[in-house]
Specification:
It is a single chain. The protein has 207 residues and is mainly α. It folds into two domains: 3-58, no CATH class; 68-200, Helicase, Ruva Protein, domain 3. Helix content is 57%, strand content 5%. The chain contains ten helices and four strands. The chain has helices spanning 3-15, 41-46, 52-58, 73-90, 99-107, 113-127, 140-150, 156-174, 179-186, 190-200, and strands spanning 17-19, 26-28, 96-97, 132-133. Strands 1-2 form a two-stranded antiparallel ribbon. The protein has a two-stranded parallel sheet with strand order 3-4. Strand 1 and strand 2 form a beta hairpin. The longest helix has 19 residues, at 156-174. The chain is elongated, with a radius of gyration of 25 Å. The protein starts with a helix and ends in a 7-residue tail after the last helix.
Length: 207
C-alpha cells in the first residue's frame, strides 16, 4: 500500500467520512476496520514504508497468528476439513490420507500457509481414484523437499524406501504415469517396476 493511499485511509478513519470521486458530497460512515498483513509493521515504519500514525490508529487490538509450520497440531484438522470440503464439491468419497502422505504433509514447512495447504488438498482430491490420498497424489517438489528433510531421521531401510519412492514417482511424473515408459527411463523391467509399486505402496491406476 502506497504512502498516499495510507494517508487517505487515515483521513477517513479520523474524520469518519469520505467523498466519492467526482462528487462534492461527504458520506458519513460508522465502521469497524479489520486489517491483516504478513509483514512486521514496526520494521516497515522504521524503513519509511508505513505511516506510524496509521499503525497506531489500527492497532487497537492485535492478534498474532503464527505461520502454519509453527502450529503443526492444526495441520491434521485442516487436512480433514479441506478433504471433506473438496470431496463433497466434486462428488467424491475421500476418507483421508495414507500414513506416508500424511507424514509428508505434516513435516512440510508450508511457506504458503493455509492457502497452499488447501490448494494441495484440492489437487490431491482431483487426482485420487480411490478413497485414500497417497503420496503419488502430492506435488513432486513437495515430496522431494520433505523427504530430504526427513532422511536424517530414518533408518537405513526406511531411507532406501524413501529414495526408491522418490525415483519412481519422478519417473512416473515424467512419463505421464505410463508405467512402461517409466520402467525404460529407470532402466528396469516393467515386471520389476510393478513389484516395486506394490512393495512401496505406490497405488495408482496402471497405464
Amino acid at each position: 500500500m502506497s504512502l498516499a493511499t495510507q494517508a487517505k485511509i487515515l483521513r477517513v478513519l479520523e474524520e469518519k467520512q469520505f467523498r466519492r470521486v467526482g462528487s462534492n458530497q461527504n458520506i458519513k460512515i460508522d465502521i469497524r476496520l479489520i486489517a491483516a498483513t504478513n509483514k512486521n509493521l514496526k520494521d516497515e515504519i522504521k524503513n519509511g514504508a508505513f505511516r506510524d500514525d496509521l499503525y497506531y490508529r489500527l492497532s487497537v487490538f492485535e492478534i498474532d497468528l503464527p505461520p502454519l509450520r509453527e502450529r503443526r497440531d492444526d495441520i491434521a484438522l485442516l487436512l480433514e476439513h479441506f478433504v471433506r470440503k473438496h470431496g463433497e464439491r466434486m462428488g467424491k468419497v475421500v476418507n483421508g490420507f495414507s500414513s506416508d502422505a500424511f507424514e509428508i504433509l505434516y513435516n512440510y514447512d508450508w511457506p504458503g500457509n493455509v492457502r497452499e495447504l488447501a490448494n494441495i488438498v484440492e489437487r490431491a482430491v482431483i487426482l485420487t481414484k480411490s478413497s485414500i490420498i497417497n503420496i503419488e497424489h502430492l506435488p513432486l517438489d513437495l515430496k522431494n523437499e520433505t523427504c530430504s528433510l526427513l532422511i536424517d531421521d530414518l533408518s537405513f531401510e526406511e531411507a532406501i524406501k524413501h529414495f526408491k519412492t522418490g525415483l519412481i514417482l519422478k519417473a512416473l511424473n515424467k512419463s505421464g504415469n505410463n508405467k512402461a515408459e517409466a520402467a525404460r527411463n529407470l532402466k528396469i523391467s516393467s515386471a520389476y517396476l510393478f513389484r516395486l509399486l506394490n512393495q512401496l505402496g505406490i497405488r495408482e491406476k496402471v497405464s
